[in-house]
């Protein structure tokens, strides 16, 4: 049996010396789709930040895509993030450049040099999210849903094993949220592991999947009807 792509054992997650979540034990296997739910302030974002190296893991054992989170050093974080695609609530597109140049910025920053290979990769990821025809648009010319599709495409540029989506539909209307989640589900169906933090229970009902809940300093699996 293959190793989990994420394994946490007896982990305590801190934010500025305050315990946010304790006794976190979790294994996520390749190709899973997992929701993280909970009220604002319950620890969802702190959990996600620990996984991509924004918060240090100081207590317990954690491994993600073959990186040891407890031993992660500053110089390792860019390499970790090349193997993890991160999608944020607020898109974080560069406002002064079009969609293609937003993508080029990431590729150049992660070591790509061949112009033809870069353009082919950009075309490929924009195709996957239905945004190929928007390559020359500026972010302000796109709707919120379109910007989030671009952000998802950007997260796919380095062919990550794992997608971490932190409230990716938080700023979107219900219909657009469902469309964005369909994109993430399709990416998952093609073999990517996805963890998505959300407070949108309507999406969970429409697209049911394994669900963990952050509550009272703990994180635990819940059945859908009780979320």
Protein model, in words:
The chain is of the alpha/beta class and 227 residues long. It has a single domain, classed as P-loop containing nucleotide triphosphate hydrolases (Rossmann fold, 3-Layer(aba) Sandwich). Helices cover 33% and strands 26% of the residues. It contains seven helices and ten strands. The protein has a six-stranded mixed sheet with strand order 6-7-8-3-9-10, with helices on both faces. A four-stranded antiparallel sheet has the order 2-1-4-5, covered by helices on one side. The longest helix has 16 residues, at 174-189.
Set out the fold topology.
Elements lengths: L5 E10 L2 E11 L4 E5 L6 H8 L7 E6 L2 E2 L8 H7 E4 L11 H11 L5 H14 L15 H12 L6 E5 L7 H16 L3 E5 L3 H6 L3 E6 L2 E5 L5
Parallel strand pairs: 3-8, 3-9, 6-7, 7-8
Antiparallel strand pairs: 1-2, 1-4, 4-5, 9-10
Helix pairs in contact: 4-5, 5-6
Mean pLDDT: 93
N-to-C order of helices and strands: EEEHEEHEHHHEHEHEE
Strand order of the largest sheet: 6-7-8-3-9-10
Tell me the major beta sheet: 6 strands, mixed
Structural class: alpha/beta
Strand content: 25-35%
CATH architecture: 3-Layer(aba) Sandwich
The backbone outline, from C-alpha atoms, is globular
How many beta-strand runs? 10
Low-confidence stretches: none
Q: How far from one another are the termini?
A: 31 Å
How many H/I helices? 7
Q: Class, according to the CATH hierarchy? A: Alpha Beta
CATH fold-level name: Rossmann fold
């Amino acid at each position: 049996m293959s190793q989990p792509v994420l394994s946490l054992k007896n982990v305590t997650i801190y934010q500025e010396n305050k315990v946010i979540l304790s006794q976190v034990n979790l294994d996520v296997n390749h190709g899973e789709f997992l929701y993280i739910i909970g009220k604002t302030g319950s620890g969802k974002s702190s959990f996600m930040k620990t996984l991509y190296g924004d918060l240090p893991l100081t207590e317990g054992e954690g491994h993600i895509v073959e990186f040891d989170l407890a031993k992660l050093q500053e110089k390792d974080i860019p390499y970790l993030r090349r193997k993890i695609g991160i999608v944020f609530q607020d898109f974080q597109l560069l406002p002064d450049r079009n969609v293609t140049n937003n993508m080029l910025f990431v590729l150049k920053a992660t070591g790509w040099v061949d112009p033809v290979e870069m353009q082919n990769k950009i075309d490929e990821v924009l195709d996957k999210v239905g945004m190929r025809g928007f390559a020359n648009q500026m972010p302000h010319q796109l709707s919120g849903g379109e910007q989030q599709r671009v952000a998802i495409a950007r997260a796919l540029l380095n062919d990550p094993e794992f997608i971490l989506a932190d409230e990716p539909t938080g700023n979107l209307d219900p219909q657009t949220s469902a469309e964005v989640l369909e994109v993430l589900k399709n990416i998952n169906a093609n073999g990517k592991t996805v963890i998505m933090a959300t407070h949108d229970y309507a999406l969970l009902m429409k697209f049911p999947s394994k669900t963990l809940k952050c509550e009272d300093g703990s994180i635990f699996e819940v059945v859908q009807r009780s979320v």
